[in-house]
Structure formats: structure tokens, C-alpha cells
TrEMBL record:
It holds the Pfam family ABC_tran. Keywords: ATP-binding, Nucleotide-binding. It comes from Dacryopinax primogenitus (strain DJM 731). This is ATP-binding cassette transporter. GO terms for molecular function: ATP binding; ATP hydrolysis activity. Signal peptide: none annotated. InterPro entries: AAA+_ATPase (IPR003593), ABC_transporter-like_ATP-bd (IPR003439), ABC_transporter-like_CS (IPR017871), P-loop_NTPase (IPR027417).
Length: 235
């Protein structure tokens, strides 16, 4: 058996000041080429789970990428490799172009030696394919529609080098059907593109059809009995 790209063991998360965990003992492995769908009813903890996976929430349990923990990588470097793209990035200050340039200067990104110009060209090309015109990159995030902001945030995550596991939270929820299909197709192709560092995706969706189209595996979070909290019921 080849070593898993990404491994999660007994992941348990408790909301601050709550007694019982939101979810507990979640364990799964992700292999190269996987598009792992995360399902579960609204409010069961899917977004919180993705935030734990990219070390944005405090959790118990063990998460590792190629056998190394976030602390062993150093958290900023780990977050570049296990990259979380939120559903709604509209709270960001400034413009998407400013954001792309700032993220490009981070030490954890500089390790990949991509020029700023290459990163910009790559992001503009991908977003244009997703019907985002270049002028939108210089508009304030607050002036963008939900769907525009969502596609631009995805283009930034995919175009900057370094991500190995991409965590996407309902990445097409604000898009019409035709645009959604384009974004979907681009995302699932990433694992096979020689120029992409991405080896697997973990993808939250509420759509059965989308899960069927893009997923290679499905994990379902379900509420247990009594105060058990949410746990993983299928893999
Ligand atoms: N830091 C926190 N403080 C308070 N409540 C929190 C915190 N983190 C998560 N929650 C709560 O945990 C629950 C799960 O939230 P989460 O966004 O993970 O659910 P979800 O399954 O992604 O929902 P949806 O499908 O509606 O997007 C919610 O009730 C949320 O308010």
C-alpha cells in the first residue's frame, strides 16, 4: 500500500465553552487523486472540520501530510500545503490583486520561487476561463458579487504554487449551472495536471448530483444519539 497523502486520526473538536464535542473521533485517509466529498446536514460541522484540517481551529487528534504534522512543517508552511478556500471570502480588505500580491510575498510561498508576474498571469488566465474579466481583480472585494469573489478566491488558491491538498467549501454554491460546470471541471483536473502541485481535494457540497459527478469517495458526518456529537459514518 502506498503511503497516504493525508491522514486524519481521531479528530475531535469542541466549540469553546461547550461541554460536548461538535464532532469526535473522525478518522480517514486521503490518497493521490482522491476527491473526497464531505456530506452532512446543515450545521453538523463540515466547515469546522475543514478549518481543523488546515489547522485554523484548535482540535485534538492527529493530522498529517506525508506523515508529518502541521507543527513539524511549521503552521504557515502547512497551511500553504493544506489550503482552505472559504465559501465566502467577502470580508477581506482591499482588492483581489492586492491580496494575490500580498500572499505571494509570504515566506511559505517564496519557497516555490514563482515570480509575481507568473502567479498573476496564471490566476488571470484561470479566472478568465471562469468568466471573470480582468478588471474585477482591481475592484474592492466588498464590491464583488458572491459568485465573483468565490471564483477569484479559488483562482488565487489554485494559481499560487504549493497547495497539495485543496479544501473547498461549497465552491460553486453561488454560481449558475454553466459556470459551475466550468469551475468543477477545472478543479477535478488539477490532480492530473503536471504543472499543478495539488494531489487531492476535500470538497463540501450539498448537491447529490455534484457529489456524484466529482467525488471519488464520500465521507458523511451524522449526528449520534444523546450527547455523542457528530461522527463519521461512512468512508
Ligand atoms: N468557534 C465557534 N463558536 C461558536 N459556534 C461555533 C464555532 N465553530 C462552529 N460553531 C457552530 O458549530 C456548528 C457547525 O458549524 P459549521 O459551519 O461547521 O456547519 P456546516 O455543517 O458547515 O453547516 P452548513 O452546511 O450550513 O454550511 C454551527 O452551529 C456553528 O455555529
Amino acid at each position: 500500500m502506498p503511503e497516504a497523502v493525508f491522514s486524519v486520526k481521531n479528530l475531535t473538536y469542541t466549540i469553546p465553552n461547550e461541554k460536548e464535542p461538535l464532532f469526535h473521533d473522525v478518522s480517514f485517509e486521503v490518497n493521490k487523486g482522491d476527491v473526497v466529498i464531505i456530506r452532512g446536514p446543515s450545521g453538523c460541522g463540515k466547515t469546522t472540520l475543514l478549518k481543523c484540517l488546515s489547522h485554523l481551529n484548535v482540535y485534538s487528534g492527529r493530522i498529517s501530510l506525508f506523515g508529518k504534522t502541521p507543527k513539524q512543517y511549521g503552521v504557515p508552511s502547512y497551511r500553504t500545503k493544506v489550503c482552505y478556500v472559504p465559501q465566502r471570502p467577502s470580508m477581506l480588505p482591499g482588492t483581489p490583486m492586492g491580496f494575490l500580491k500580498t500572499v505571494h510575498t509570504f515566506k511559505s510561498r517564496q519557497a516555490y520561487h514563482t515570480s509575481e508576474q507568473d502567479a498573476i498571469e496564471s490566476a488571470l488566465k484561470l479566472s478568465e476561463h471562469w468568466n471573470i474579466t480582468s478588471d474585477l481583480w482591481d475592484k474592492d472585494w466588498t464590491g464583488l458579487s458572491g459568485g465573483e469573489a468565490q471564483r477569484i478566491a479559488l483562482a488565487v488558491a489554485v494559481s499560487l504554487p504549493g497547495a497539495v491538498v485543496l479544501l473547498v467549501d461549497e465552491p460553486t454554491s453561488a454560481l449558475d449551472e454553466a459556470t459551475s460546470e466550468k469551475v468543477e471541471n477545472s478543479l477535478i483536473e488539477l490532480c492530473d495536471l503536471p504543472e499543478s502541485s495539488i494531489e487531492a481535494l476535500i470538497w463540501i457540497t450539498h448537491s447529490d448530483e455534484q457529489a456524484e459527478r466529482v467525488g471519488t469517495r464520500t465521507l458523511t458526518l451524522e449526528k449520534g444519539t444523546g450527547t455523542e456529537g457528530v461522527h463519521l459514518v461512512s468512508a
